[in-house]
Amino acid sequence: MNIAFIPVRGGSKSIPLKNIKILNGKPLVYWTAFAANNAKCIDKVVIATDSEDIKKTVNKFGFNKVEIYERSSKNAQDTSSTESVMCEYIENVKLKDEDLFFLIQATSPMLKSEHIDGMYNSFVSSDYNSMFTAVREKQFHWINTDLGVKPINYDYKNRPRRQDFEGIFAENGACYINSVKNIKNEKCRLSGKIGVYELPSYTAYEIDEPSDWIILENIMQQI
Asked: Is 136 a catalytic residue?
């Protein structure tokens, strides 16, 4: 079985009730729930929440693969990790070790069904143990050191042309795949030999702050 797991808390300090705030005409969580529900590879979509308002909103979507999981308040705090609610669900629901677990984050509404299916096809045809989505960045990155800043992804003395520069991958936080067995053993969304599935640059945006909302709404209206 392939399970898409979307954790959504009721609490959000930066944007109150962020996960059901209207984005481009629909509640935020609608976009990833829609993508997962319509992905051919997904058998079940689980919305894990502690909020009655979110439950009511999700139930109105009428998506045939979607079900609600009532996450514990202990794992719905500001300090709670995503892994904590993943492991809670896996421990409380009878899943097979070989089942695939797709962690999908509602704050990445640019994720599409075809992205999920493409990622799945790439994963099952590889020898990777887990995989994450990312975008390719072609900026030149530097870090601070005791001796001043230094580049981490290019040689400044031999500056490459942009068209010849491979760049680096940046997680976009949209989707992760791992087996239930690996998550149970490692308590982590990624483990073993890790692969990356590249998505279009516009998927880099995640909603964390009010300004992200404005940017994403504008992008969604153009695509």
From this structure: no
